[in-house]
Amino acid sequence: MTMTEPSFNEIISLYARYAASIDEERFDDWVGFFTDNCVYRVIPRENHDAGRPLASMSLKGVAGLRDRIYGVTSTVFHAPYYQRHIIGLPLVKSQDGDLLSVEANYLVLRTKRDHLTEVYNAGRYIDTIQVGSDGLKFQEKLCVFDSELIPNSLIYPI
Fold it and tell me: Which of 19, 79, 109, 136 sits CB 3.0–4.6 Å from 85 for a disulfide?
């Protein structure tokens, strides 16, 4: 079934709610932004541009996302910090039936307690968004970051 194209405001709202769920550490809500059979990858730009599959994080399906969140909330110990996502306006590249190809630049800032805020990660989202009766959901989210390194470790979703 082909759905009608969502409004630009609906797409902007998807990205804003996505960022808020991570920044507010509402990780169960974060999982809800994805289809059951989703792909979530955090990959350096160099690898993405060269077609190399090596990613810093690669998760498949909601079960993979939930496993990551369990690790973040229950098993990983790290110095506490806050994240803040700034996402540029999304660009709808194409629509094929109920799938949208969308890109948006992002910047993730990190603030450790008693430290200055620093740029943690910058890049672009390359997304496939499914338009369904339950709204917009990410079928594939590629977080293609510009630097070759991530400071320390990748803990929270990008």
Answer: 19
